[in-house]
Structures are given as C-alpha cells and as structure tokens.
Amino acid sequence: MTNNSILKLDTPALLLDLNLLEKNLDEISSIAKENNISWRPHIKTHKSLQIAKMQLERGACGITVAKLEEAEVMVAAGIVDILIAYPLSSEQKLERLRTLTNQAKITIAIDSLEQAKIVDEAFNGASPITVWIKVNSGLNRCGVEVNEVLDLATEITKLPNIHLTGIFTHAGHSYAATSLEQIKSIAKCEAQTVLDSAILCEQAGIPIKHRSIGSTPTFKYGATIDGITEIRPGNAAFYDMCQVGLGVATASNCALTVLASVASVKKDRIIFDTGSKALALDQGAHGNKSVVGFGSVIGHPEVTIERLSEEHGVATLSATSTLALTDKVQIIPNHACVVANLFDEYNVHRNSVIVDSWPVDARGKMR
C-alpha cells in the first residue's frame, strides 16, 4: 500500500472499495436485464441503506432480508418492496409484521401448513399478506419438498388472509461445491426445483407469478434458465475469499476488506490486531477445502492467518516477510456477510482515498 488516507485510519477498520462495489452491482443489474428477469438483492450481506438504495437505483425490484428487524430498518428509510426470506410464526413477530404491512409491500416465506395457519390467523381483520412457498433444492434447511408443494399451495388457497404469489428457493449447498461444473449443475437443479413446483401448482389452477432463485455462486447460471423470473444474490455485492475459492470471483472482485495493523512480530509468526471479532471464524462450507486460513492478506502471499483468538490474528510465514511492527495491511475476509455485521461503519474509499463513511444500519438486527 502506498501512502494514502486509508493509512490514517485506526485499526481494525472495515473498508469498502466504491469502484469495485459499483462494478459488482452493475454486473448483477446487467445480468438481470439481459435475461429479462427481476433482481431482488439480499441485503443481509451489507445491511446498509446506502447500498440498498444503490441497488434499487440500478433496477432492483425490491430487496430480500433475512430477519424482520432488517425489514423494519429498511422500511423506516422508505424501501417499500421487501421479501422476508424466513418463515415467521411467533406471536411477537407477526404482530410487528402486521404493523409493517401497513407501511410497505411485504412478502413472507411459508414452509409448512402449520405456519400458514398461524399467519392466516394473525392477519384476521387485516389486509391479506402476500406469501411465497419456500422449496428445498438441496440445502436441507427450511423449505418443503417438491412433492409437498401442491398440497401446501392448495391448503393456502383456502386461507382467507394470505395470498400466494410465488415460489422460491436458496441453493446454499453451492458453497460446498468443488468445481464450476458442479455449481452449474446445482444452479440447474435449483431452478428446476422451483419450475417443477410452479408447474404442479399451475396445472391445478393455482397461478405462480414469481419464481425466484439465486445464491451468489449460482445466480449467473440460473438467471439464464427459461421460466425463472427473479434472482436474489447477496454476497455478490462484495464477494470474498469463499467465492474466490469456489472460482466464481477473483480477489480483484472483492470490494470489502478489513484494515489491520501488525501488533507483534516474532521469529515464526506475525500477529495482527484482527481476531475473530473482526474477521469471524468462517473457513468456507464443509466439503470445500479451497479456502486457506482466515482471510487473505493483500500483497503478502507469504502470510497465512492460521488462527484467531478474539483480538489476535496469528499468521505463519512461508517465506521471509517485509512486514514490521505497526505496518498496515488489507485483509479480504473469508465471509463478507458476517464480517460486515461486526463493524459499525464502512470506510468508503475510491482509488485508496477515503470519500465517505456509511453506517452498517441493520447491524445486529437478528430478530
């Protein structure tokens, strides 16, 4: 790193390269437009009003959130078309959700009849809430199986206070892929799971307007499959070393880094002031062995961050390093989404000059 305003920051600090962010967002927007489909980015990656607005300015039809609190933050700032891609069922959450639907167009995930009946009861006396059925395309987390979709959709149509308009899935198991060919295969299966589910419903007279897919590893491939109407990549705004390890991005695509200082130098190791509270503990999905260490130190391939304690990043050396006490480096995190949630603000830079500071508005919003 040359002398620039980044070096004046205290560490650890979260850095966001505006050039790369804009490039990544423009690419996603172009892919959606070229395939004549909608783009509904998942903001759990960045949790930022500023970035969400940049995505909407580039043509996003709305946003996706993981949690109700994230939706509340976004609605308060004027974002009014939101998918909550999480099955809500508790009394407290549904009461808040009912309030939120008076201010914005909210769609929620349904993955069981029991949940659907609870939501229906919660919206008795209110305007019906829009729902999408979540199907399981291989992640084996939430979601019904394809052979269960029609029964669930049929029962939902009997409930007066919920309105089914879509089917979606999340192929998170693509993070454990070991080749691009496997990612493409997962993308095809992801899309086919949604399309098969929609066909079953429509053959029974239940229209399915929205057919939504798109984990970051798979969205570029799934976007090209006929019948899909929407993609929802989140991590692709930033990318990270997990995506680099999968082969869907390079280090030069990664917009988010953590600025660290050398806190101590020993014969066989270097210690940075970025432990698990700055870099998180992710090392990629189980089965994917391409991610090495706990982040990549830019410009120093001889350095591997081998272990983390809360405040210390302990690195080993494969060759002599020029790094000395108080030197500063940028580290590309393994998983940008969890790292962004560890900081209060983005230090936004263009060409290594700090140009702004953006809050991580929905940081810690987990309910």
From TrEMBL:
Which Gene Ontology terms cover its molecular function?
Answer: D-serine ammonia-lyase activity
SMART domains documented for this protein? D-ser_dehydrat
Q: What class of enzyme is it?
A: isomerase
Q: What is this protein called?
A: Alanine racemase
In this record, what's one Pfam family?
Answer: Ala_racemase_N
Write down the InterPro entries for this protein, in alphabetical order: Ala_racemase_N, D-amino_acid_metab_enzyme, D-ser_dehydrat-like_dom, D-ser_dehydrat-like_sf, PLP-binding_barrel
Q: Does the keyword Isomerase apply?
A: yes
Name the EC number(s).
5.1.1.1
Keyword vocabulary terms for this entry: Isomerase
Gene3D superfamilies from the UniProt entry = Alanine racemase, D-serine dehydratase-like domain
For this entry, list what GO says about its biological process. Answer: D-serine catabolic process
